[in-house]
Design brief:
Structural class: alpha+beta
Number of strands: 15
Order of helices and strands: EHEHEEHEHEEHHHHEHHEEHHEEEEEH
Strand content: 15-25%
Strand order of the largest sheet: 5-6-7-2-13-12
Largest sheet: 6 strands, mixed
Helix content: 25-40%
CATH architecture of the largest domain: 2-Layer Sandwich
Shape: globular
CATH class of the largest domain: Alpha Beta
Number of domains: 2
Radius of gyration: 23 Å
Length: 487
């Protein structure tokens, strides 16, 4: 059985895992039942899922742990996968709404994955109002990153309703033989591992001048007015950056992409700049209500995919940029200006790196955070940044699965010690879907942040488009309370 060694970043997701901080990412996919769906549609789906025993990578990979002949963790192909473990069934008391669904997802996200098996789980959820059902799929981050994970899930769906009836589940591939293991490398002996490590070090040595230049640019390009390059750890401690416990909260929000696009055109920025500014406005209000808004602006760590186009391989291919959220600014126009400028500086800084140095740069950038998690001091020291906010591009047309229309995709992500809130967005079929994942204890009433993003978006529209406040706001997991007077 051939083995594929994990790279250092993927291995870090394993070594920093604990009961309170499981390192798996997930996707909540909501579907509308077909008009002609039989009453036992979901029961049939469950039975059909468990009948598909043809697995492709990465869904058939499990971990081979170190301290044997191979001193590094590796992926090996599992020949005996128990689908009764990997495919589950859950039901909400009908009619289940967004709040009830969010509570269930929070519970499922709180439970670590069994790393002695291929590290993924799929839960079919029924009982949703409006003739809907959902799939919640979670995967360990050491196996795959969010971008490639969503690409693999979308491959099991179709833009054509009829064609979708013929497709196999996401772990199977209709018409293909059983997946072949990745190309075998040298035998996993200590001698070969050392030889590979020496070769890797030689390659890294050639990138040292670029890495030194990259990190010295941090100090040269920091803006005195808060609009320049944001540097690691130059951020305030906040309510969002304490210790976390096991239980998770999850909430959703959804906006038409047309609203975000109109604002981006008016503000001469990107849709991602609008997303960050909206999140900054929501976090400002949330922290103000708790008398815990820092004087310095909060900063965001923004994962950036560096995966080549059409590459759906397993593993992680991401780097990071840092940006301000402008939470110290009352005026939403000034907040957007600050966000836009810092993001532009961050992207320009990343583009200056040669591709061969990108992985080493990311590891050096994240090393302090990884060390705080390994040593147990995460959440007790100043954070590298305050919150992770990522934006995953999705398809712009409706997808179908077993004849059911996919109506929304909500990413569910990781929180760690010192990073108690994660906001991940995915665009799909003309909508931007926000998934808010947080520690239940550290971030109380987290659902309010999801609600306040709608108010922050309206503030931007009033500032740039001169629109009146909407009577009917975007859907959220809770009823909204009157907004307090702003500072």
């Amino acid at each position: 059985m051939s083995a594929v060694r994990l790279n250092p970043l993927d291995t870090a997701w394993l070594f920093t895992e604990s009961r309170a901080t499981p390192n798996h990412v997930g996707g909540l996919l909501q579907f509308r039942l077909p008009e002609d769906a039989p009453k036992d549609y979901l029961r049939q789906l469950m039975a059909e899922f468990r009948s598909h025993r043809n697995f492709i990578a990465p869904w058939n990979r499990r971990l081979k742990y170190p301290f044997t002949r191979n001193p590094l963790p590796a992926w090996v192909e599992d020949e005996d996968i128990d689908l009764e473990y990997h495919v589950r069934h859950a039901a909400l008391p009908w009619p289940g709404g967004e709040r009830e669904l969010g509570e269930l997802i929070g519970l499922l996200q709180s439970t670590p994955i069994d790393l002695s098996r291929p590290p993924w789980e799929c839960t079919i959820i029924e009982g949703l109002a409006g003739k809907r059902f959902a799939l919640f799929i979670k995967i360990h981050h050491s196996l795959i990153d969010g971008v490639s994970g969503m690409m693999l899930l979308q491959r099991a769906m179709s833009f054509d309703r009829e064609e979708s009836l013929k497709l196999a589940p996401f772990w199977a591939q209709r018409g293909r033989p059983k997946s072949q293991p990745p190309k075998a490398g040298p035998a996993p002996t200590v001698a070969n591992v050392m030889a590979s490590a020496i070769g890797g070090l030689r390659a890294q040595v050639r990138t040292i001048p670029q890495l030194i230049g990259a990190f010295t640019q941090f100090l040269k390009r920091v803006g005195d007015d808060g609009t320049g390059l944001v540097i690691p750890f130059d951020t305030p401690s906040s309510l969002l950056n304490g210790r976390v416990r096991e239980k998770r909260r999850f909430a959703t929000q959804q906006f038409p992409l047309a609203r975000l696009r109109a604002l981006a055109e008016a503000g001469e920025c990107t849709i991602n700049d609008i997303v960050l500014t909206v999140c900054g406005g929501a976090l400002r209000r949330y922290l103000l209500e708790r008398d815990s808004l820092p004087d310095k602006p909060l900063t965001a760590g923004i994962p950036v995919s560096v995966r080549p186009k059409d590459d759906e391989d397993a593993g992680n291919a991401i780097s990071f940029i840092l940006a301000t959220l402008g939470t110290d600014l009352v005026d939403p126009r000034l907040r957007l200006r600050s966000v836009r400028s810092s993001v532009q500086h961050g992207k320009e800084h990343l583009r200056q790196l040669p591709r061969r140095a990108m992985h080493q740069y990311t590891m050096l950038l994240m090393a302090p955070t990884i060390l705080t998690l390994l040593t147990g001091i995460g959440g007790r020291t100043r954070p590298m940044f305050n919150v992770t906010i990522s934006n995953v591009p999705g398809p712009d047309r409706p997808l179908y699965f077993r004849g059911a229309e996919l109506v929304a995709i909500y990413p569910v992500s990781i929180v760690t010690q010192g990073q108690a809130l994660n906001i991940t967005c995915e665009s799909y079929a003309g909508m931007m879907n926000f998934g808010f994942t947080a520690c239940h204890t550290t971030v109380p009433s987290m659902q309010k942040i999801a609600v306040y993003t709608a108010d922050a978006l309206e503030e931007l529209e009033q500032a740039f488009l001169r629109r009146k406040p909407r009577q009917a706001r975007a859907r959220s997991p809770r009823k909204k309370k009157p907004a307090p007077r702003r500072a």
